[in-house]
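Hello,

Our lab assistant flagged a job as stuck in the queue for most of the afternoon. It eventually completed. Since we weren't sure the result was trustworthy after the delay, we are filing this so someone can double-check. Below is the sequence as submitted and the structure that was eventually returned. Let us know if re-running is recommended.
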Amino acid sequence: MGSVIMGTGVSVPDNVVTNHDLAQIMDTSDDWITSRTGVKERRFVDPGVGASDLAIDAAARAIEDAGLEPSEVDMLVTATMTPDYIAPGIAGLVQAGLGLNHVAAMDLRQQCSGFLYGLDLADAYLSTGRAGHVVVVGAEVHAGFLPWSRASWDRVLGDDSVELPADDYTRNTEHRAWSVLFGDGAGAMVLSAGDSPSTGVLGSSLHTDGESFELILVPGVGFKERPWVSSDQLTEDGHLPVMDGGGLYRRAVRLMPEAALEVLEQTGLTLDEVDLVVAHQANDRILEGVRKSFGMGFEKVPSNIAGYGNTTAGTLPILYDELRKAGRVARGTVVCFAAFGAGAHYGAVLYREP
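-- returned structure --
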């Protein structure tokens, strides 16, 4: 029986950073960023706030929206690539913060596809009767991932009295191609066991292309190294991502639609019957490529990247929550969730609102 989305919730920080703010700390402009990414602004947490904090807030909102008590939740799935600690993951912190019982709490590391994989995992447990209510949450705090100095952060967050050293400006500019993309945020869903095979989660098509592993990765601070982190690695920026933007674009615009068509074929539906495509919000150029592939416009393949940037595992639930609360997910609406991310993990999940 198809698992049903019973509630949703979002948690985003109050600190809004515009492209004009970023132009104070690197050689960039609103036009440069917008034309290449579609991002106009993003949000960042205060120092000391972790992905678990955003996840707890978003999940609590989703549980309340579903009309449930925390004691009724049977399982928790968390997805993040920016955990509070290198080990363990955030699932235990989120479980404790929500006041859940000692239910299974799982951490997923599929990066931008993490929430998509979480949806499928939740549906598997619900469909087999191993759980009745599952919380899935995607949460990211990219602020700590960005290569900006304290002076850079002070300027970005509104302190114009801070003088930015020339070396900081040069370094920030060096990493601008990827650093302007990201923002912080979390989204959550509560899924419950359904009573009809024709509604709820209808099917999924998940894949991993391990040969594309190096399209985007953090080359250092890993346990192949001895020690796993060193001053030399940090000096050489081994803790920062390297990215093949062109390769990512070409695969994302091809593989997300391919996965969507696969799940449509599985379920016997056609592309014409899809009302909404909730795709990962990585770059507006990728989203436009997906629209062209599907022959759909903005209404059917919406975007909110302009206001949030890429929130990695948080993008799908944040966008879906906005669409749902805007009345875009009426009874019978067919939604295709799709994502592509580092790993390279990608796929699609098809859902019909009861």
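-- support follow-up --
The delay was a queue issue, not a problem with the job. The result is valid. The chain has two domains: 4-192, 200-352. The longest helix spans residues 245-267.
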